Amino acid sequence: MTLLSGPPAARSASGATPGTASASATVGERAPRRPVSPERIAAGLTLLALVVLGVLAVSEVGISIPAMVQSWGNAENFMARVGGLSFPEPADLAWLIALTVGLVLVGTLLAAVLSVPIAYLAASNTTPGNGWRAAARFVGVLTRALPDVVLAMAFVLMFSLGTLPGILAIGIHSIGMISKMFADAIEQIDEGPRLAIRAAGGSKMQEFTSGILPQVLPSWVATVLHRNDINLRGSVVLGYVGVAGLGLEMSYAFKALNYGKGLGIALVIFILCVAMEIISSMVRGAMLGGQKQTRSWIDRLIHPRLLGATTSATDSTRPAWAASPQAAVRRPWTAERVRDTIGAMIAVLVVIGSVVVSQINWLDFFTFWAKLPEVAAKFWPPSFGSYEASAMIAAMRDTVAIALAATVLTLLPALILGSLAASNVAPSSGARGVARFLLVGIRGIPELILAIVLVVITGLGAQAGVIALAIGGIGLLGKLIADSFEEVDRGPERALRAVGATRLQTYTSATVPQGMQALIGHSFYMLDTNIRAATILGIVGGGGVGYYLLNASQGSRYETVTAIVLMILVTVLVVEGLAMWMRKVFR
């Protein structure tokens, strides 16, 4: 009884009378609070500053919907001059399509092969040392920063016109993103199988082929197919520097003021991009089976069985032949195995056909060495030439402003469409299907073609470049957001719904907080992509440093091209550093 004879305040603090208001307040005061680190505050302020700069950039560009509506007469006059769409002869068109697809496939596969050792060295759990890791990461950033059109320009000087400059440009430029995604996949593996192989005396090669590769292969397949889609859209630009294919034919048409034929080829490229997206989804569904990386609406339409599939190795649906090693040796030829084998054979034939169609002159690999010193001397040392340094820096600043403005304009529409395209957020399967269809359609429009149309409507300048990048970014960022939201832990979502939370409350309190890190990473990736794309759009009048890049290349002032590329490289390195810091802080 003496324990209860103290003052009421003391009894409340000791917990003798739980349930009182004072006791609840005291417990609340004693509850641990997560400290906010100065680094986290700095990262948040940096993120806010970038958003503000993006908003200011949008304001500076001066995008005006009423002005665009008033300028619609320009588009009408242009279409009147165009008349009807025209196309090359059917046989010529089929050859151009095969040539374009062939060089894109070969270039993407070249990048995939070269990315494997770079990713192995760049991954923190497989690299031999920090020096190797830093070097591999730098190679990835460098190849991402080098515009493929500049690479193609250099290779045209060494190999002459044709498909080989395009293949090498696509391959080297794609190493940056493919190796980065490959390395991220390696860092996320289960170390158990690899350590077991090492404990049994396996070699490094056996660790990789048996302990790492089976785990990362689904992610690698999805990455390569996604990059192939991007390269197909980017191949349009390469035609402007002499790479054979649909892009070159389109550039000839526009230079000859044959706008009907140019827009007709642009329509063919759009249809080809959408068809490639559908085929890629079919391949992902067939190769990845029940893996959760197959997320698109096309995957679900073609492979309904993926809706309830699981990736567990001990799942009860595992086939009988996998029950023991002896049974696996005598694996039966089921319909699924026959289909997979036929698919693999078709893939091999497609690759061989792509190499044949590309008409690569293999002797060029032995003769270009003699031209290498001469070409290198043209690109080095870097110099702004007749341009003033202040003008070039201002142009680079305009390019960054265009990229920031486009990224800011992309964020909200991409977040809305991406959320509706996620199966755990969409109110119905119909809404999700429509959102996925819109994302595929938007991604199918090459930014260069969109910029050409917008330049006709709005005139030369940054406005056309910003709008083109913003529209194109919605498709890419929306897909990334949808995939990230579908991969969040469903536990918090189910818990909130169990206590009566609405769909919106579940979305804002469980889905978005879990996907915030991925959302930040995807936004910086979008900014990185837009900086490089804004450079290219300047070639067709989209503003920024691309205008000077085009003039320097056409005037054979390659030392100026090198100076511009170095500015782009420094900018991309800064963005990459910010992105890595943000992901680390908000982890």
Structure explained in plain terms:
Helix 6 crosses helix 16, helix 8 (148-159) packs across helix 9 (164-187) and helix 21 packs across helix 23. It contains 25 helices and no strands. It has helices at 8-14, 21-30, 38-61, 65-70, 72-82, 90-122, 130-145, 148-159, 164-187, 191-199, 204-238, 246-255, 259-288, 297-302, 325-329, 335-358, 364-379, 389-421, 429-443, 447-458, 462-486, 490-498, 503-537, 546-554, 558-585. It has 2 domains: 86-306 and 333-380, Orthogonal Bundle (MetI-like fold); 388-587, MetI-like fold (Orthogonal Bundle). The protein is mainly alpha-helical and 587 residues long.
Keywords for this entry:
587 residues, 25 helices, MetI-like fold, mainly alpha, 0% strand
Shape: globular
Q: Give a count of the beta strands, DSSP E runs of length 2 or more.
A: 0
- Top CATH class of the largest domain: Mainly Alpha
Cα-based radius of gyration, to the nearest Å: 27 Å
Poorly predicted segments: 1-21, 290-317
Given the helix and strand composition, which structural class is it? Answer: mainly alpha
Q: What fraction, in percent, of the residue positions are helical?
A: over 70%
Mean pLDDT comes to: 75
CATH topology of the largest domain: MetI-like fold
Q: What is the annotated CATH architecture of the largest domain? A: Orthogonal Bundle
What is the ordering of alpha helices and beta strands?
A: HHHHHHHHHHHHHHHHHHHHHHHHH
Enumerate how many helices there are, as a single number.
Answer: 25
The CATH H-level superfamily of the largest domain is: MetI-like
Q: How large is the share of residues in beta strands?
A: under 5%
Measured between the Cα atoms of the first and last residue, the distance is 51 Å
Number of domains: 2
Strand count, sense and closure of the main sheet?
none
